[in-house]
Design brief:
Chain A: Belongs to the binding-protein-dependent transport system permease family. The complex is a heterodimer of chains A (about 280) and B (about 350). Chain A has about 280 residues and is an all-alpha fold. Helices cover about 75% and strands about 0% of the residues of chain A. Chain A folds into two domains: about 35 residues; about 210 residues, MetI-like (MetI-like fold, Orthogonal Bundle). The chains are: A mainly alpha (about 280), B mainly alpha (about 350).
C-alpha cells in the first residue's frame, strides 16, 4: 500500500481527468438525446412536425389525450398489461421451485437442465415464430391474450431460473438445515428461510420478466392479427402509414408505453447489476 | 458378460438397502409417497426405496412444470418448424410433404442471398463495434478515474450515473427504439441532420433512410450498438470489478501504464465474459428483426428474419419455416465457432 501511494500521486494530473470527464458527458448526452427527441416530438403541435427547431414553439399537451381517441391504444394497453402481468405470475410460479431445486440438489442431469436453459435462450423467436403460429393455429388460439401470456412466460423462464438459482445457491444451505433440525419440514424451510433471503433475486427476476414481456414485439406481431388484440409495442406501429407518419401521436403513445418501464427500472437498477453479476460472471 | 450383470445386481441392492435401513411394507411405502412428508412414519423414512421415490417426487413437483412448459412452447414449435419446412403448408388444412423443395428454392432465391449478405455483415460488424465500445466504457468507469491516495485503480466520478444512462436502452422495447431512431434519422426533420446542419456540417447531411443500402446499414448498426452497448458496460464492469486490486497494484509497481495494464491484466482476465458477450451480441445482430422491419424502408435493405417474415405474411409458411431452420442452424454454428476460436486456457485468480 505504502509503495503505491507515491506512484499514484505522480500519475494524477488534472487535464487528463478533465478530458475524460468531458468525453463522458458528451457521450452521455449523445445517449440521452433520442429520449429528449421522443418527449419533445410527442408534445409538438402537428403543424410544427416538419420544422428543424429542437424545441417546439409551444407544447401541445392535448396530443397525449387525443392519441387515445384516435386509435385502439386503450385496447392495446389493456392487452399489454394482461400479458405482462400474467406472464410474470406464471414465470414466478414455475421458475422458483425449479431454481430452488437446481440450486440445492445435485440431481442427475442437472448440467443438462442448465444447458437446455442456456441453449433455448439462444433460439431467436423470429426463427420459431412460424412454428408457434402453427401450434396456436391448431389449438385455435390465435388473437388471444392467453397465447401471448403463455409464450412470453415460456421465453422468460430460462432467464428467471438462471438468475434465481444463482441467487439461491449463494444462500448457505446450513440455514435451512438449522431450521429443519428445529422441526420444520423441508418445504417449510424453503418458504420461511430461503425465500425471504432470496427476495432481492425474486424481485429482480419478477421485474425483468415484466419488462421483457411488456416490451415483447415479434410474438405479438405474428400471433395477434386483429389491431385491438395486439400489445402496445405492435399497436404503436399503426401510426406509421405507407406515406406519412403521425409522429406526434406515435411518440405520445411511445411515452405511454415506456413510462411504466422507467418506473420499474428505477426500482431494480441496483439489483439488475448484482443480478447480472450473479448470473453471468464466473 | 452382459448376462452376468443383472444376476449380480439384486443382492447388491438389497445389501445397500440393508445398510441404508429397514424395508417397510409396500402399501405403507406407497401411501407415504402420496401424503406430505410429515406423515411419513420413521420406519418408512429409513427405507432406501422411499428415499429414492422421495427424490423423484421432488423432481416431479419442481422440474416437471418448467420442463413441460419448455416442451410445449419452445421445443415443440421448434420441432414443428423443422417438420413444416419439408412441406408446402400455405395456411390451409393440408400440408403435403415435399422433401427438400423449400431448401432447394431457398438456395436458388437471390432475394434470400441478398438478405443473408446483410445479416452476415451485421453479424461480423455489430459485435466487434459494440463489444469494443462496451469494454472501453467499462474500463473507463472502473479504472479510468484519477488515482486517489492509496488506491491503484479508481472509477470516474459518477460512474453509476453513466452505467444507468448506457444501460437504459436495454430496457426499452426494441420496437420503440426503432421508431425513435426512425425520427432521428429522418431526412427533413431528423435530429441527426438538424444537428449536422446546426454545427455547419451541411455536407454530411444524408437521406439516411432514403433507400441507399450503405447508409441504411450504417443506421442499423448504430441502433444495434446504441441499444446493446449498455448491457456490456454493466456486464464488463462487473467482470472487471471482480479482478482483485492487488493485481493492478502489482502491475503498477512493475511500471505498467494504463494501456499495458489493460491489455496484460484486464483483458485476459475478463476474456470468458467477452466470449459469452460476443455470442449473445452475434445472435442479436443476426436477428435485428424489429429494427429493420420498423425503421428501414423495404427497398433499402433487408435482413434474413425480415425476409422470413414477409414470406410468412404472404402465406408461404413452409418456405418461411425453412428459412427459420437455416437461421437457427447458422446461429448455432456461429456460437460453436466463437466458443472454439476464443478458447484459451482459463486463468484462475
Amino acid at each position: 500500500m505504502t509503495a503505491t501511494a507515491p506512484a499514484a500521486r505522480k500519475r494524477s494530473f488534472r487535464p487528463r481527468t478533465l478530458v475524460i470527464t468531458a468525453v463522458a458527458w458528451l457521450l452521455a448526452a449523445l445517449f440521452l438525446a433520442p429520449y429528449l427527441e421522443m418527449v419533445l416530438t410527442a408534445l409538438r403541435p402537428a403543424d410544427e412536425l416538419r420544422d428543424r427547431s429542437y424545441f417546439p414553439d409551444k407544447l401541445e399537451w392535448s396530443n397525449l389525450v387525443d392519441v387515445w381517441k384516435e386509435s385502439s391504444l386503450g385496447d392495446n394497453l389493456q392487452v399489454t398489461l394482461l400479458v405482462a402481468g400474467g406472464a410474470t405470475v406464471l414465470v414466478l410460479l414455475v421458475s422458483l421451485p425449479a431454481a430452488y431445486y437446481t440450486a440445492r440438489v445435485r440431481y442427475r442431469g442437472r448440467k443438462w437442465f442448465l444447458l437446455l436453459v442456456l441453449v433455448t435462450q439462444m433460439f431467436q423467436p423470429t426463427a420459431l415464430v412460424v412454428g408457434l403460429y402453427r401450434q396456436f393455429y391448431q389449438l385455435d388460439m390465435l388473437n388471444s391474450v392467453w397465447t401471448l401470456i403463455l409464450c412470453n412466460a415460456a421465453f422468460n423462464l430460462a432467464f428467471a431460473v438462471w438468475i434465481l438459482s444463482a441467487y439461491i445457491s449463494s444462500i448457505p444451505v446450513e440455514l435451512e438445515e438449522a431450521a429443519m433440525v428445529d422441526g420444520t419440514s423441508r418445504f417449510g424451510a424453503m418458504i420461511r428461510v430461503t425465500l425471504p433471503l432470496a427476495l432481492p433475486g425474486v424481485v429482480t427476476a419478477v421485474i425483468f420478466t415484466f419488462i421483457t414481456s411488456w416490451n415483447e414485439f415479434i410474438m405479438g406481431l405474428t400471433l395477434s392479427t386483429e389491431p385491438d388484440k395486439q400489445p402496445l409495442t405492435v399497436g404503436i406501429n399503426n401510426f406509421i402509414g405507407n406515406y406519412t407518419v403521425q409522429w406526434n401521436y406515435l411518440f405520445a403513445a411511445s411515452v405511454v408505453a415506456i413510462l411504466p418501464v422507467i418506473v420499474l427500472f428505477a426500482f431494480i437498477e441496483r439489483h439488475v447489476v448484482s443480478g447480472l453479476t450473479a448470473g453471468s460472471v464466473k | 458378460m452382459k448376462t452376468a450383470k443383472p444376476a449380480e445386481s439384486p443382492p447388491s441392492t438389497t445389501a445397500r438397502a440393508a445398510a441404508g435401513g429397514t424395508r417397510a411394507p409396500s402399501g405403507l411405502l406407497l401411501l407415504s409417497v402420496l401424503l406430505p412428508p410429515r406423515f411419513t412414519p420413521e420406519r418408512v423414512k429409513r427405507d432406501r426405496r422411499y428415499r429414492t421415490l422421495d427424490k423423484y417426487r421432488f423432481i416431479a413437483g419442481f422440474l416437471a412444470l418448467p420442463l413441460a412448459f419448455y416442451a410445449v412452447f419452445v421445443i415443440s414449435p421448434f420441432l414443428q418448424a423443422i417438420y413444416y419446412s419439408f412441406t408446402d403448408w400455405d395456411g390451409g388444412a393440408t400440408a403435403d410433404f415435399v422433401g427438400l423443395d423449400n431448401y432447394r428454392k431457398l438456395w436458388n432465391d437471390d432475394r434470400f442471398w441478398d438478405s443473408a449478405k446483410t445479416s452476415v455483415s451485421l453479424l461480423v460488424a455489430a459485435p466487434v463495434i459494440t463489444l469494443s465500445l462496451g469494454i472501453f466504457f467499462a474500463y473507463m468507469i472502473t479504472a479510468g478515474g484519477r488515482h486517489r491516495r492509496g488506491q491503484a485503480v479508481a472509477g470516474v466520478v459518477g460512474s453509476s450515473f453513466y452505467k444507468v444512462v448506457y444501460f437504459f436502452p436495454q430496457v426499452l422495447s426494441i420496437a420503440i427504439v426503432a421508431v425513435v431512431w426512425m425520427r432521428v434519422f429522418s431526412t427533413r426533420s431528423g435530429l441527426l441532420n438538424g444537428s449536422l446542419g446546426a454545427v455547419g456540417l451541411d455536407g454530411l447531411e444524408k437521406p439516411w433512410l432514403g433507400g441507399d443500402y450503405n447508409l441504411a446499414l450504417f443506421a442499423t448498426l448504430t441502433v444495434l450498438c446504441w441499444s446493446f452497448v449498455g448491457f456490456y458496460v454493466v456486464l464488463f464492469s462487473a467482470a472487471m470489478g471482480a479482478i482483485p486490486r492487488d493485481l493492478y497494484e502489482a502491475a503498477l509497481l512493475d511500471g505498467a501504464g494504463r494501456a499495458t495494464t489493460f491489455f496484460k491484466v484486464t483483458l485476459p482476465l475478463i476474456w470468458d465474459t467477452v466470449r459469452t458477450g460476443w455470442i449473445y451480441m452475434g445472435i442479436q445482430a443476426l436477428d435485428a428483426f424489429a429494427i429493420v422491419l420498423v425503421m428501414v424502408p423495404d427497398h433499402a435493405l433487408k435482413v434474413t428474419p425480415v425476409f422470413l417474415y414477409q414470406r410468412f405474411r404472404e402465406g408461404q409458411f413452409g418456405y418461411a419455416t425453412a428459412i427459420g431452420v437455416v437461421l437457427l442452424v447458422f446461429s448455432v454454428v456461429f456460437s460453436l465457432i466463437i466458443m472454439r476460436v476464443g478458447n484459451r486456457d482459463r486463468i484462475e485468480y
